[in-house]
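in:
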């Protein structure tokens, strides 16, 4: 359980580092949960409806998290 919390804290730190860029474009991101090596997030604001959400999710958010947290296998946006 301690390892789970440490991993979640690392994930949240990466999300907090990304957040200002999303807010600058009128969006935001919310950490939902980390389960079975998958991070579940919710895109908010203009990011939730953006045509580039797949790019933002995979090429920015997922890549950034996976670079910092080896255990993470993927990121899923919950709607």
């Amino acid at each position: 359980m301690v390892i789970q919390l440490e991993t979640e804290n690392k994930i949240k730190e990466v999300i907090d580092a990304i957040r200002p860029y999303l807010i600058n474009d009128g969006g935001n991101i919310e950490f939902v949960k980390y389960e079975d090596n998958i991070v579940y997030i919710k895109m908010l604001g203009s990011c939730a409806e953006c045509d580039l959400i797949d790019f933002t999710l995979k090429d920015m958010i997922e890549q950034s998290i996976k670079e910092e947290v080896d255990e993470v296998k993927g990121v899923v946006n919950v709607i």
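note: The chain has three helices and three strands.
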